[in-house]
Write a structure and sequence with these properties.
- The protein has helices at 41-44, 48-64, 93-107, 137-149, 160-171, 209-220, 224-232, 237-247, 249-266, 285-293, 313-316, 323-329, and strands spanning 4-9, 13-21, 26-35, 71-76, 82-88, 115-124, 127-136, 153-159, 178-184, 189-195, 200-205, 272-276, 296-299.
- The strands form three sheets. Strands 3-2-1-4-8 form a five-stranded mixed beta sheet, with helices on both faces. A five-stranded mixed beta sheet has the order 11-10-9-12-13, with helices on both faces.
- The chain is globular and about 60 Å long.
- Helix 2 (48-64) packs across helix 4, helix 5 (160-171) packs across helix 12 (323-329) and helix 6 (209-220) packs across helix 7 (224-232).
- The chain has three domains: 1-78 and 137-172 and 301-334, ATPase, nucleotide binding domain (Nucleotidyltransferase, domain 5, 2-Layer Sandwich), CATH 3.30.420.40; 82-132; 173-299, Nucleotidyltransferase, domain 5.
- The protein starts with a strand and ends in a 5-residue tail after the last helix.
- It is an alpha/beta fold.
- It is 39% helix and 28% strand.
Length: 334
């Protein structure tokens, strides 16, 4: 398999893996993580000055960690990602595209015009369900230009939720037929509930590590520049765990809603969930989800499926933060 660069630009950190797929998983040649100098990049990517800031930083970061490959795969997430499900009757393959365009025209002003989009047809019980995903073309073009201005050649773009689902389903040991994956980042959580070779439900939820940070700062007066360190110190767990419990009710509601929808469509439900992402190790998060959702969970580290022992310990300890990158590396060429 050829080398490529997987780049995950998150609200808090930029993660990069240069590597390739292998029969056993993926191999890492170079890897790095850095704080994102532009946390609001998703909303400000169209501003030329901020665009230059991000592309310049990315170029310097790639040089610093010694990236040599130019072909890059990336992904998008957040409120601008459009996710829409609808059922279709049996029809010839060549008619599906037209049916998709007609459906999207009814639910989105302007239809697919102005969007970069894709769709997949899935089996759900006795029906055919279409998963449509879209992203504003203007923002997509600006995002891709960040990569080209940084010296990379973007060859594919995914969405975070599907990349994480691809990572887990490709790398984790074959076990349960239905899996619930929660990729918890700084601002958003990607929810993916997937039945192997069947129906997949995805959703981006506005919840992440910054939700806890804001609560700790507002309620306990912890300075913003100190709250991240405070939150991760085990000595402060008696303060942090109640903070997590205080901010997750809406998050839990979104998970339960997704599980109910999945069960209606697929006739199945997961027996457990997996947590991954940069904020997956929040004190008390797994236990709170277990208690309120009613299924057991565990943290998943994509580094458990790699062939290189050369990853520095400081990065290896942050393995769950690289779940999106792992999924991008595992992406099938199309």
């Amino acid at each position: 398999m050829g080398q490529k660069v997987a780049v995950d630009i998150g609200s808090a950190a930029i993660k990069v893996i240069e590597g390739s797929r292998t029969r056993a998983g993926f191999a890492v040649r170079r890897i790095g993580i850095a704080e994102n100098p532009l946390p609001d990049f998703r909303s400000s990517i169209l501003e030329e000055q901020k665009h230059r800031t991000l592309s310049s930083f990315l170029a310097g970061f790639l040089r610093k960690i010694g990236i040599q490959t130019e072909e890059a795969v990336c992904s998008v997430a957040g409120s601008d990602v459009i996710i829409h499900y609808f059922d279709i009757p049996e029809m010839p393959q060549e008619e599906i595209r037209g049916a998709v365009e007609m459906e999207i025209l009814q639910v989105i002003p302007g239809g697919i015009q102005g969007l970069d989009s894709d769709y997949a047809v899935m089996s759900a019980a006795e029906t055919k369900t279409v998963l449509f995903t879209g992203y504003p073309k203007e923002r997509c073009d600006a995002f891709l230009r960040v990569f080209s201005d940084a010296g990379l050649t973007p060859v594919a773009m995914d969405i975070d939720t599907l990349a994480v689902c691809n990572a887990y389903c490709s790398l984790a040991p074959v076990g349960e037929d239905v899996v619930c994956i929660l990729n918890v980042g700084a601002v958003h959580t990607n929810l993916c509930i997937s039945h192997r070779d069947g129906f997949t439900f995805i959703r981006d939820i506005r919840f992440g590590g910054h939700s806890v940070n804001s609560f700790l700062s507002d309620t306990h007066g912890i300075p913003a520049e100190q709250v991240e360190t405070y939150k991760l110190d085990p000595a402060n767990s008696t303060v942090v765990i109640p903070a997590v419990q205080a901010v997750i009710p809406e998050f839990i509601g979104e998970i339960l809603s997704g599980l109910r929808y999945f069960e209606r469509k697929a006739g199945r439900k997961p027996e457990r969930f997996v947590l991954t992402g940069g904020s997956s190790k929040l004190p008390g998060l797994r236990e709170s989800i277990e208690q309120q959702v009613g299924i057991s969970g565990q943290v998943w580290d994509p580094f458990s499926s790699i062939e290189s022992g050369d990853i520095p310990d400081a990065i290896r300890q942050r393995g769950p933060a690289f779940a999106v990158c792992a999924g991008l590396l595992m992406r099938e060429e199309r």
